[in-house]
Write a structure and sequence with these properties.
Chain B: The chain crosses the membrane at residues 12-34, 105-127, 139-166, 178-196, 239-265, 285-310. The complex is a heterodimer. By secondary structure, chain A is an all-alpha fold. Chain A has helices spanning 22-44, 76-112, 114-128, 132-143, 147-174, 177-184, 189-225, 237-243, 253-274, 278-281; strands spanning 12-13, 19-20. Chain A has a single domain (22-277), classed as Orthogonal Bundle (MetI-like fold). The longest helix of chain A is centred in the N-terminal third of the chain and has 37 residues, at 76-112. Chain A is elongated. Classes of the chains: A mainly alpha, B mainly alpha.
């Protein structure tokens, strides 16, 4: 689901030799900002995350509380800043795990081939045909939703897609002469996938990682919104929407701002990947 | 229809059935991962060992997992989805009504969004590169990039809070009068329509644009046909296959969206049932609902693939 807005935007040549569009640069800055917030949340949050700052709940925006107060009268801004840790942290851990497993298996399947590749592909393709939310519901029902379990669950759900993508790319690289030479030289599997295949597919794989990160943020938010993701007293952005959903009929900022936080992150990642230099993005659209 | 097409379709259906089997194995394994003894949980701490052993035997839990899986599969094939752990009612009975409700919701959504999405998608393709096309692109990207619950909350804020046209929560009022029925369905349908239309518009636009790049369309252009005639008379009939494919794939997004929408609007459908089952860890009910969702999903993507096979002109005269 790579997203294309327009390819005729003015572009600038940077020293690296990559073309970087302004939209991509802005998107990158938004992502960077959220990453910084996730790390420094305790330093920049105006109030402690659990502190009830006002007895009036669902307050509108004000100078004291820029994003209003939530259903218990807590500062929404502080809670969103802390929520970034869970949303960004969990998603990042899951996507790293999913892509590490998926890409390694994909490259291994391409190099080994034969029955191993066929069986693995058939099995993982079947996993893709389980809707992600259903899979998440089944796994959470079976093993609960503590933080490590949540990360593993999300990783398991998005590994098959990553595998399929990496395998399709690796099969092409595998047919190259230099890989054949390395194989004839008697190199082992580990060396083949690390030193011969990986450098040839790393760009598209990273772009795919970004897209998968968006899917994971969306699924994590949805799970938390359903009450099956991050559990109280911790709250990611999805959980913030859930706990303040009572303020919906008042159009309280406590419901709107966590949603906007999610949107700003996911849209930025999509736009960044879309505006990546063609060199990196090459072939990342067709999977 | 020739034998090659029939063989390809048959092959595709075999793949679907194999996939369904693997999916069943995965769901069965996942739901039996549950740490702790189901029987102990069901009967509570004070259960006598005899009662535990008795129930375990009655539930076939004393048999190996592979055997239990085959038994479950056999029952599944005959429509017996087991009995709910929580209230002892057969799962098929619990699901029946709820499934009908969800299908109604899905049907209304599809009937509303398919024509709108196709029109917008084809218009965007005709007007490629114009302001309209850009606007459609930006809106659809935005809808795709945000979670479904955000679309739902925005819809509530716009239609219920700001405009005051509709009630914020569904299924609270009566559904006997037409007005009441429309009010109950409106918010869920609006939300779901946005979610699947965004996908459908993008895929339709892509399908039409791809057809427009074919040589025969260029021929039509050179012969002096207007852009409108070129699209509607020359490109569209050939883009029909990819478009139907896009519609079937987009409808599969209903499955994910329906979980959020039924929860937020308190709609008594199968997704809400499954969610409640997750909360009470009612495993037979979860298994039943999950299999229905997976089956529906597989059905839609299989239809999409078969349409692609049938509409491929290269296969027609092979």
């Amino acid at each position: 689901m790579s997203v294309s807005l327009s390819s005729t935007r003015p572009v600038r040549r940077w020293r690296l030799g990559y073309r970087i569009s302004p939209v991509g640069a802005v998107a990158f800055l938004v992502i960077l900002a959220w990453a910084v917030v996730a790390v420094t949340a305790p330093l920049i949050a105006p109030h402690p995350v659990g502190e009830i700052v006002d007895f009036d709940f669902f307050q509108p925006m004000s100078a004291a509380y820029p994003m209003g107060t939530d259903y218990l009268g807590r500062d929404v801004l502080s809670r969103i800043l802390f929520g970034a840790r869970y949303t960004v942290g969990i998603s990042l851990a899951s996507v790293a795990l999913a892509c590490l497993t998926g890409v390694t298996l994909g490259m291994a399947a391409a190099v080994i081939g034969g029955a191993f590749e066929a069986a693995l592909s058939r099995f993982l393709d079947a996993l893709i045909s389980i809707p992600s939310k259903i899979m998440a519901l089944v796994l959470v029902a079976a093993i609960g939703s503590s933080m490590p379990v949540l990360i593993l669950t999300l990783a398991v759900i998005y590994t098959p897609g990553s595998y399929r993508f990496a395998r399709a790319l690796a099969v092409n690289v595998n047919a190259m002469d230099y890989v054949t030479v390395a194989r004839v030289r008697g190199e082992r599997l580990g060396y083949l996938i690390r030193a011969e295949i990986l450098p040839g597919i790393v760009g598209p794989v990273l772009a795919d990682l970004g897209l998968r990160f968006v899917f994971i943020v969306l699924l994590l938010s949805s799970m938390s919104f359903l009450g099956l993701g991050v559990q109280p007293p911790n709250a990611d952005w999805g959980a913030l929407v859930k706990e303040n959903i009572g303020g919906l009929s008042l159009a309280a900022p406590a419901v709107i701002f966590p949603s906007l936080a999610i949107a700003s992150l996911t849209i930025s990642v999509n736009l960044l990947i879309d505006n990546l230099p063609q060199k990196i993005r090459d072939r990342s659209a067709d999977a | 229809m020739n034998s090659l097409i029939l063989r390809m379709i048959a092959g595709r259906i075999v793949v679907t059935l194999m996939t369904l089997l693997i999916v069943a194995i995965v769901i069965f394994c996942a739901t039996t991962l549950l740490p702790g003894d189901v029987v102990q949980i069901l009967l509570g701490q004070s259960a006598t060992p005899e009662a535990v052993a008795g129930l375990r035997q009655a539930m076939h839990l004393d048999q190996p997992a592979a055997l239990r899986f085959l038994l479950w599969l056999k029952n599944l094939a005959t429509g017996d989805l087991g009995v709910s752990y929580v209230n002892g009612i057969p799962v098929a009975e619990l699901i029946g009504n709820r499934l009908a409700n969800s299908l109604k919701l899905a049907g209304v959504t599809a009937a509303l969004s398919v024509p709108v999405a196709l029109t917008l998608g084809i218009t965007a393709a005709i007007l490629r590169g114009t302001l309209v096309d850009r606007l459609v692109a930006v809106v659809t990207i935005a809808v795709i990039s945000v979670p479904e619950f955000m679309v739902a909350t925005l819809a509530v804020i716009v239609f219920a809070v700001t405009l005051g046209w509709l009630p914020a929560l569904s299924m609270t009022g009566d559904v006997t009068t037409l007005a009441g029925l429309i009010k109950a369905f409106a918010m869920p349908v609006i939300t779901l329509s946005f979610v699947i239309s965004a996908q459908m518009i993008r895929m339709t636009r892509a399908a039409v644009i791809e057809t427009l790049s074919a040589p025969y369309v260029e021929m039509a252009l050179l012969k002096g046909a207007s852009r409108r005639r070129m699209v509607l008379h020359h490109a569209l009939p050939n883009a029909l296959g990819p478009i139907v494919n896009a519609v079937a794939l987009s409808l599969s997004y209903l499955l994910g969206g329906v979980i959020i929408v039924e929860t937020i609007f308190n709609y008594p459908g199968i997704a809400k049932l499954m969610l409640d089952a997750v909360a009470t860890r009612d495993l037979p009910l979860i298994q039943g609902c999950a299999m229905i969702f997976c089956f529906a999903y597989l059905l839609l993507i299989t239809i999409a693939d078969i349409v692609t096979i049938v509409s491929n002109p290269r296969l027609r005269h092979a």
